[in-house]
Description:
alpha/beta; Rossmann fold; 7-stranded parallel sheet; two-stranded parallel sheet; globular; binds uridine-5'-diphosphate
Amino acid sequence: xxxxxxxxxxxxxxxxxxxxxxxxxxxxxxxxxxxxxxxxxxxxxxxxxxxxxxxxxxxxxxxxxxxxxxxxxxxxxxxxxxxxxxxxxxxxxxxxxxxxxxxxxxxxxxxxxxxxxxxxxxxxxxxxxxxxxxxxxxxxxxxxxxxxxxxxxxxxxxxxxxxxxxxxxxxxxxxxxxxxxxxxxxxxxxxxxxxxxxxxxxxxxxxxxxxxxxxxxxxxxxxxxxxxxxxxxxxxxxxxxxxxxxxxxxxxxxxxxxxxxxxxxxxxxxxxxxxxxxxxxxxxxxxxxxxxxxxxxxxxxxxxxxxxxxxxxxxxxx
Length: 318
Ligand code: UDP
């Protein structure tokens, strides 16, 4: 296939591009480096089946030549207001990537007769009241909260993708991605795993927001990418959750990282710095992915963290 991938310089985008190339596909990667990083694709630029366009998805654009698949993965994704790369500091860009960017990529798929995949998010469930979250749960989102720029952009993007599927018969898919981690995460996007790993590697206390009883379920990036490739091969327009159902508290995550890195500094509890609406619990129900794709995560948290730590050490110059 010749695949257009937006957000190719992002954390997930760069891993997905690498895997598509390994499978023998050609990749046209697109990014404007708003939150993506040039170093994530430096090694791909030398690949004969990879080409790159520096482009904002919220502005119209054309792609020369045939396309078999369009994958829309471009968006800011970190909720941390302390980072310049968090979506609270990029509110308009985030809404444009999810709205205009989705229009543009859907139109492109239509023009080229290509299949389509939208990267959506567990954030469509907001601060969920159902645990674990199945795809049939409609969510609990505050439309005027600070997280709304991301949550509602992705909800709009899902609705738009379904509209193109229903009206034009476009061969679409929606993947709802839960917390994912691994090499190449931005060091400075303020998310929990990059923050904790850097703090532990420097021997500092880990900054736990609130009392650390909130839960997340962390999926190693290679597992996620495997699920995405499988979903690309089936025809299923309705959303599919991809994530690791192993749910832990933020405090347990901190303790695990401190143990793996022999960090004696412990944790420090900070007043809740995250946005109002920080989900109290989040865990994917992956029954649909198991049944439809025969997929489930393979890499456990400690193994995934060890692989991620190697990458962080190198990038931090340790
Ligand atoms: N968090 C934390 N310390 C940090 C960064 C994040 O305790 O230094 C918490 C945050 O409040 C949230 C969870 O970790 O409850 C996951 O945050 P992240 O930004 O990684 O992603 P989210 O799942 O909220 O999109």
